[in-house]
Amino acid sequence: MLGYWNAHLKNPEEVLFLKYEDLKGDIAFYIKKIAEFLGCPFSEDEEKQGLIEQISKLCSFENLKNLEVNKTGYRRGVLKNSTFFRKGEVGDWANYLSPAMAESFQKVMESKLEGSEDDGEQVGGLWSPLDQFISSYHFLLDNKFEKDAVPLELDEAFDMFCEGIHSWGPFWDHILGYWNAHLKNPEKVLFLKYEDLKEDIAFHIEKIAEFMGYPFSEEELKQGLVDQIKKLCSLENLKNLEVNKCGYVQGIMKNSSFFGKEKLEIDELSNACHG
């Protein structure tokens, strides 16, 4: 997360950094803010017609949670869709963690984020990592990756999380390592975001080729080589290859499960924290 925060500080006109707590506090305000950031502000007419309120209601946690598609079925054949929508409450960690545990985690986080472009205390308020921990803890309780797996006690899971032992790794180390490496050696490390690739895949195919030292020639561009690569590497094409429709990875995960939906939705960002 720190990578995105630093990118926002460096280029606020290109990177909009939002906090779940703020969205929960005033969703209408942030819907307007997102629209303005994307260069598509609401007109006076649209505001008078209540378009913002309609979007607010449509994208609300409660509405998404009660959609039939989110109440039934499984994601990749393993994860219940319903487990991605628990409470959606800010501060729910206080119902599970003691003040001593919260204080202990705050110290760990400040230590891990020392030297960032913002002080640890403010960074700590940005992402509510304790909420993230509780959400992911419940998520794993609801989804057993091993049939005979025994759930960890809360205290044990918390200690492991603080030590960096976590299913997806410590969040402060995950993206930050690549981001810092990119800032330090931009000619050696290319940092790409899925959202950017989705928005303009052709541009980024050219960018990757240049970064690798193999730029496309004018002739190749005229022949439509970039478009051919774009089609060849598209999720739809990869998803429909026979090798990706059958078989397993390490005898556990279906190859097909690595190819879900191509579409990104705003709510899926909060799903990453299993809210």
Automatic annotation (TrEMBL):
Record's keyword terms, sorted? Transferase
- For this entry, the protein name equals Sulfotransferase
User: What is this enzyme's EC?
Assistant: 2.8.2.-
Q: Which organism does this sequence originate in?
A: Rehmannia glutinosa
Organism lineage reads as: Eukaryota, Viridiplantae, Streptophyta, Embryophyta, Tracheophyta
Q: Which Pfam families match?
A: Sulfotransfer_1
The answer to whether keyword Transferase applies is yes
Domain named Sulfotransferase: residues: 2-116, 129-262
InterPro entries annotated for this entry?
Answer: P-loop_NTPase, Sulfotransferase_dom
Q: Which domain of life is it from?
A: Eukaryota
Family per similarity comment: Belongs to the sulfotransferase 1 family.
